[in-house]
UniProtKB/TrEMBL annotation:
Gene3D superfamilies: NAD(P)-binding Rossmann-like Domain (3.40.50.720). It holds the Pfam family adh_short. This is Uncharacterized protein. Coiled coil: none annotated. Keywords: NADP, Oxidoreductase. It comes from Pieris macdunnoughi. GO terms for molecular function: oxidoreductase activity. Belongs to the short-chain dehydrogenases/reductases (SDR) family.
């Protein structure tokens, strides 16, 4: 394997940790495990070292512009550029059934604005033919949104950043004004998360349209993975969940751009609003019940 520089956001635990492990296993030159909390990050590095994997470490909080800027400058000065960026950091609604304005803002800040901050500071140092993977969700497929105006606007091939911002503002205003409409969503649970992940998938297409330099940017549903986010429920381990993101970062053809992938490496048409691909919330709740038995 050639010597590439890779970094994974939010990788002290969960899927991000699995992705770092897989990047190391595949002998990518330099792999950065990053975390918002330094101690949790260093403990994660020590855990991988015990298994014979040696990632490097840097602090990175994707909701803190100073932190993002500091790390981007560090990578630029030390390596001159970046080859693989995996935007994995994410948070889920703490109340699955009810969304407050503050909570919606917090989730959108990390899940969407975090990726936009990473774009601002890291895209200028991406090398030609670099790869970016945005970790979305099946709850980030367009079929989660049933409002015809937003489905049409978000699936437009020439989508712009202002369309993504418009969508997020529509949601935040509806939450603030207590004006959410049930019929606008596939299901009325984890709404801030769903909206944020639909925005991540849409943003992937915006980023690809704008980026140039042969860079490829794709998003992915990593599958239902046993992590703290799912309170231990799920079908896959974090080690298994690391495989497909790394396949997208290393193995698929560079010409695959702006697409949305499933955890089994197949491509799913993100913009097809007639597909039946999204897991119901009921399945998630059943998995949690199993864990708590
Ligand atoms: N697990 C699933 O079944 C599933 C399904 C679909 C999509 N996903 C997506 O996969 C990604 C990883 O989820 P996971 O299940 O592995 O969750 P997790 O175990 O809760 O891990 C999330 C990671 O993101 C980090 N993080 C949160 N806010 C951050 C910030 N501001 N800056 C930097 N890092 C931050 C967390 O750090 P701390 O340890 O400090 O909290 C943690 O390392 C998320 O984007 C999630 O939405 C997961």
């Amino acid at each position: 394997m050639t010597s590439k520089i890779a970094l994974v956001t939010g990788s002290n635990q969960g899927i991000g940790f699995g992705i770092v492990r897989e990047l190391c296993r595949r002998n990518v030159g330099v792999v950065y495990l990053t975390s918002r909390n330094i101690q949790r990050g260093k403990e994660a590095v020590a855990k991988l070292e015990k298994d014979g994997f040696y990632p490097k470490y840097h602090q990175l909080d994707v909701s803190d512009e100073e932190s993002v800027k500091t790390f981007a400058e560090y990578v630029k000065n030390k390596y001159g550029g970046l080859d693989i960026l995996i935007n994995n950091a994410g948070v889920l609604d703490s109340d699955f059934y009810k969304v407050s304005f503050e909570e919606a803002k917090r989730i959108i800040d990390v899940n969407v604005h975090g990726i936009i901050l990473m774009q601002k500071h890291f895209f200028p140092i991406l090398r030609d033919n670099a790869r970016v993977i945005n970790v979305s969700s099946d709850w980030g497929h367009i079929t989660n949104i049933k409002n015809p105006y937003w489905v049409q606007r978000l699936t437009n091939k020439d989508i712009k950043l202002e369309d993504v911002y418009g969508f997020l503002n529509w949601f935040l205003d509806s939450v603030k004004n207590n004006a959410l409409k049930e019929e606008d969503f596939f299901e009325n649970s984890v709404l801030a998360y769903r909206v944020s992940k639909v925005a991540v998938s849409a943003l992937t297409r915006v980023q690809q349209n704008d980026v140039g330099k042969g860079i490829s940017i794709n998003s992915l549903n990593p599958g239902f993975v046993r992590t703290n986010m799912t309170k231990g429920g799920g079908d896959m381990t974090v080690v298994e969940a690391g495989v497909t993101p790394v396949y997208l970062a290393l193995d698929i053809d560079q010409s695959v751009k702006g697409k949305y992938f499933w955890f089994d490496k197949t491509e799913v048409d993100w913009a097809d609003s007639t597909l039946d691909v999204v897991d119901t919330f009921d399945a998630f709740e059943k998995a949690l019940e199993e864990v708590n038995k």
